[in-house]
Amino acid sequence: MKLRASLTFIAVAVAIAVGCGSSDDSTFDDPNAANDSGVGPGPFGGGDSGADGPRPCTGLCLKQVQCNGGTTTSLSGIVKDPAGKVPLYNVLVYVPNAPVAAIATGASCDRCGSVSGEPLVTAITDAAGHFKLDNVPVGNDIPLVIQVGKWRRQIKVPTVAQCVDTPLAAADIRLPKNKAEGDLPQMAITTGGADVMECLLRKIGVDDTEFTMPSAPGRVHFYAGSPGGASTTTQFAAANGGGTFPSATTFWSDKANLLKYDIVILSCEGDTYSAAKPDVALKAMYDYANAGGRLFASHWHRFWFNTAARTGPNPQPAGPNPSPFEPFGTWADRNAPGDQVPGQLVTGKVDDSFPKGKAMKDWLVNVGASTTPGDIEIKESKANIDSVTKPQATQWITMTNPYAGNAQAVEYLSFNAPIPAPDDQKCGRVVYSDLHVSSGDVRGLPWPTGCQQPDLSPQEKALEFMLFDLSSCIQNDNAPVVPPPPVK
Q1: Confidence (pTM)
Q2: What's the structural domain count of the chain?
Q3: Which of 382, 433, 106 is nearest to 264 (CA)?
Q4: 282-314 per-position pLDDT tens digit
């Protein structure tokens, strides 16, 4: 039954994680299983009428009870990232009333609207990462799903007591670190000479075992970007098996290879390196985003969207043809002294004119990345895009650049793809960051020896927010973020 909703989620779900039980031993095997709560079904027992007539109450529906005095049976908690450190916004938490389907890896058109497993009760986390599920079934081993996009963990709550709240430990409801704990999207990272994006996923808690060559089964695959010299990480450390990463140019020139990935992360290379991004690669990346891929591009990877020449120090030629991505902003391509002086801080301003922007403003305060609501300190900010064109794109964080005549610069933006398509036909999502994210990590060292800071800086926390939003199901950024209604 299709659900109508705006949520933070994909349409397809994942199989129950190893160590968290499976549908083979779940309540769902016997829809007439005895109610082990010790109480009879409440008013929900008769089911609700839908388009196809009354829906019978089966499975866990039989374990929902009516409480007196306005109380309810509930579960509550704070969902955190895989590291168990940072609370996450807009994560869907629900009790399924049927087995959930396996997830398909690779670019897919996952618009908000349907959730596997016939959710019985649903909630999403707020800007503090908190959720509360009401009217939860009473009993033992109640299944619970925690999911955002293709990140998902499933557990069974040992005991849910009647008509009281059962708080859940944060360790039980964080997102998975590895395949043994749950499901992670299949990700590709291209390295570069100006940023160390590969360290970010490690900081948010993804296990080292999941970082592998593309030929291995890890959930994060490496490709070596330009320039390939001392400033770019191109191989694993000896302790991690050694081995040189395959070429990013070969990777992004192959549409079929791109489509194998749920998320592609492009670390800034220090220049546009137009020769390494031929027209076949531009078209492949465009097709990947339109087919449902999720793309994060840092700083000089603006070339995918604007193939103009790179001027100033170390100029780069323009691409022979314009980018296939439709225009979504006004590009300035400022270099030194237009770029911020390295090491200097400027104050970024969060755009709170749309629901997720308002949530980001509050979330940054809640996670210690901001002391003044709406403000965030940015190190190594850039000024390559002056503005976005609405509704084609959404700006998230801007700053006034004192090194470029106080011109406004957009530091984070996003858009859903294809850009010209109506909302109900958009499939992919792109995030562009016009700043260098990594703080304290060292470029060029074999992975993971360059990852020398265990904790996230304020601007890395902002990127973590954007990364999980990038992972989530596709919806209009101006739409309210609400959980899907339960299946009736």
Answers
A1: 0.88
A2: 1
A3: 106
A4: 999 999 999 999 999 999 999 999 999 988 777
Cα 483 from Cα 93, distance rounded (Å): 9
The span from the CA of 396 to the CA of 416, in Å, is 14
Nearest to 406 by CA among 343, 347, 342: 347
| Strand boundaries in 103-150, DSSP class E | 119-124, 130-134, 139-148
CA distance 26 to 159: 15
Residue in 225, 258, 205 with CA at minimum distance from that of residue 464 = 205
Residue 217, classified by CB atoms within 10 Å of its CB into exposed (0-12), middle (13-18) or buried (19+), is exposed
Short-list 132, 222, 197, 161, CA closest to 39:
161
The answer to whether residue 154 sits within a structural domain is: yes
Residue pLDDT, tens place only, 313-370: 778 899 999 999 999 999 987 765 555 556 678 899 999 999 999 999 999 999 999 9
The CATH number of residue 111's host domain is 2.60.40.10
Q: Which structural domain, as residue segments, surrounds residue 80?
A: 23-173
In what side-by-side order are the strands of the sheet with 165-167?
Answer: 130-134, 74-78, 165-167
